[in-house]
Amino acid sequence: MIEVVLACLGIAVVLCLLISARDCNRFVTVEYEVESDKVTRPCKFILLSDLHNKSYGKDHERLVDKINSISPDAILVAGDMLTAAKGHAFGVTLSLMRQLSPRYKIYYGMGNHEHKMKLYPEQYGTTYDDFVAELSAMGIEPLVNENTYLPEYNVSICGAQIDSCFFKKFTKYPMDEQYLPKILGEPREHACQILIAHTPQYFEEYIAWGADLVVSGHVHGGIMKLPILGGVLSPNMTLFPKYDGGKFVQGKATMILSRGLGTHTIPVRVFNPGELVSINLMPKHTRE
Fold first, then answer.
1. Helices and strands (H and E) in the chain: how many
2. Under DSSP, is residue 230 helix (H, G, I), strand (E, B) or coil?
3. What are the start-end ranges of the E strands in 100-232?
4. CB proximity list for 164: less than 8 A, separation 6 or greater
5. Which stretches does DSSP call E strand in the chain?
6. How confident is residue 243, by pLDDT bands cut at 50, 70 and 90?
7. Are the beta carbons of 37 and 285 closer than 8 angstroms?
8. pLDDT (tens digit, 9 = 90+) per residue, 181-203?
9. DSSP code string of 28-68
């Protein structure tokens, strides 16, 4: 009996490894529609998150071709497009940005990996400054607790860079209700306020700040996706996270959570391929 159990476990492990090898090297495209009575005309965004220096095909060929076929109005980046490392270990990410930036406006929100390089120059040297300088040379100005307005759509986009304490493992660090207004300022109340916020864990706090649409990543879909239960493990090492990927609606606010495109620390994706997200932001009155 023990031999049968061990054999079954062995087969299960091998199958998971085979599935992971496939899912780590492919991505799917998912599309969401979000309505807002503040938006004045339809706007299509691509959401990129958690690439972690992954390239799909030579020089991102598969990913770029798919983005071009969708032809978005703009691209939102929800952070962790690279993995924190000393030196110029961001060439893969810059290659993708360099191909996309001449054609699309890119709004880049920072993740915990970008932020980590900024926080610890004694460990990472000038890596963060060099990376931001390269982005700026392409016309990409990262939104670091800044808000920018798109008048043609009546949409405002803010990039939140929250403190590293909010990425602690095994717990949800409490966020004071005054924290986001202090670092972000006030939301643009009469516009559709998009908040690029790398971790989805604070969705309720983002809503309280004034976000109409939150776009996030960080969770990598929970590493393994199980039927009914969803994602298994979050980056802060909690099982079956409340937010693992997809569309979440609370009141009038919506969060689109990408399952990301790459892997980090645990290089495994089971029933959980990389994800390219397309968001159609629509005026509500057009469907009434």
1. 8, 13
2. strand
3. 105-108, 146-150, 155-160, 192-197, 213-216, 225-226, 230-231
4. 112, 115, 116, 119
5. 27-36, 43-48, 74-77, 105-108, 146-150, 155-160, 192-197, 213-216, 225-226, 230-231, 246-250, 253-257, 274-283
6. very high
7. yes
8. 999 999 998 999 999 999 999 99
9. EEEEEEEEETT-SS-EEEEEE---TT--SSGGGHHHHHHHH
* Cα atoms in the 13 Å half-sphere on the side-chain side of 284: 6
| Residue in 36, 72, 44 with CA at minimum distance from that of residue 286 | 36
Contact indicator for 51, 276 with CB cutoff of 8 Å:
no
Q: How many CA atoms lie within 13 A of 136 on its CB side?
A: 7
178: its two tokens: 């005054």
- Angle separating helix axes 127-137 and 112-119, nearest 10 degrees: 120
Type of residue found at 89: A
In this predicted structure, the answer to whether residue 244 has a pLDDT above a threshold of 60 is: yes
**Distance between CA 81 and CA 167 in Å, rounded?**
17
- Taking the C-alpha atoms of residue 203 and residue 205, their distance in angstroms, rounded to an integer, is 5
